[in-house]
Amino acid sequence: MTVRAVVLREAGVRPAVEEVVLAAPKRGELVVRIEAAGVCHSDYHYVTGELVAPLPLVLGHEGCGIVEQLGPEPDGRIAVGDRVALLWRPRCGRCAACLAGNPALCERGRVQASTGGLPDGTSRLSLPDGGELHHLMGVSCFAERVVVSENAVVPVPDGVPPEVAAISACAVVTGVGAVLNVVERAAGRGILIVGAGGVGLSSVMGARLVGANPLIVADVDDAKLELARELGATHIVNSSRDDLVGEVLRITGGEGVPWAIEAVGRQQTLETTLECLAAGGTMVALGLGSVDTRFTVPLNQLVQRQKRVVGALYGSSNPPLDLPRIFGLYLDGRLPLDRLIGDRMPLADVNLAYDALLSGAVGRGILVP
User: How far are the Cα atoms of 8, 46, 121, 154, 317 from residue 136, in angstroms, in the given order?
Assistant: First the structure.
């Protein structure tokens, strides 16, 4: 079939909506009609070339839609008509990472990233002239329809809107998941969250959920910080005006925080966040940067103060287990995920959506094919 999709042909050149060819699903795959797709900064790293993937490709990795067709010999977990959230990391269930309960590191994810295909390494996308076209992270949901692996979808319960389900499968499960899966004994203890974008604000909601106190949020945008306060931050710091390290030490009586989440992915913010840790504290890095991003860790702080730095891909979550929990908390009113939703736009406005993202728009932009 032919569908409209946002195609990135060359790094550094703005993507555009084109007609592309979508092949029928193979065994273990399905066709999903996209209802909503979140505009995430990670996609934009591929547009600029800061992150590298096989080109040309169809963008989008944060989506939700309705299952329209199943491939041969379906496993019975998913039916036509189901609403599903799309996962940019599949869960094959057989590799060492999946068996250990860490599907964020599923070996099929590395296959998708290196080949620009689905878990078998081949693409269901092509250009009308027969030219090669790749998937982004096995999803490519900036499109009217997609073919994805059965292992890369999670059913969405009634009552969860498509746009909420879409962002839950990336930003929310990353931010909330980092708090639930990596941060330990947070109730009544301080936490710092640096960055108040979709992932950072999700971390704020997770930290409030588990009772972290004080809950300090830093960003350079006052509107985002105000939303962070409304979502549960006890203290906000505009780090473009105020000394973040000094403010954290003041709030914590000179001790620093036992936990910090860095949701930006920049050298300066990583190094500053590390300085805000108390002795024995841990920084959890969530943000992605360019492939050559590095930051400096002072050796004596690491040893003498016993500080730790850990990474958490996808919030170190197990999405088939964690996403239903998140949907349940949303439906119970304990995770106000609607507050993360920004403007809704058609596919043709993808570059306006990226412009809004880069200008610091509050809320996650949503493309609605």
Answer: 10, 9, 12, 18, 20
Is the separation of the CB atoms in 5 and 114 below 8 Å? no
Contact yes or no for 247/214 (Cβ under 8 A): no
Residue 89, pLDDT score: 86
* Domains parsed from the chain with CATH numbers: 2-170+317-367 (3.90.180.10), 183-311 (3.40.50.720)
The count of residues in the chain is: 369
pLDDT at 93: 85
Q: How far is CA 271 from CA 28, 247, 283, 285, 363, in A?
A: 44, 16, 10, 11, 26
Instruction: Categorize the per-residue pLDDT at 207 as very low, low, confident or very high, splitting at 50, 70 and 90.
Output: very high
- Compute how many other C-beta atoms are within 10 angstroms of the C-beta atom of residue 135: 27
3-class SS of residue 86 = strand
CA distance 112 to 167: 21
How far, in Å, are 86, 124, 180 from residue 174 at the CA level?
A: 14, 27, 10
CA angle 250, 253, 257 (to 5 degrees): 85
pLDDT tens per residue, range 309-364: 999 999 999 999 999 999 999 999 999 999 999 999 999 999 999 999 888 888 89
- What is the torsional sign of CA 178, 200, 343, 40? negative
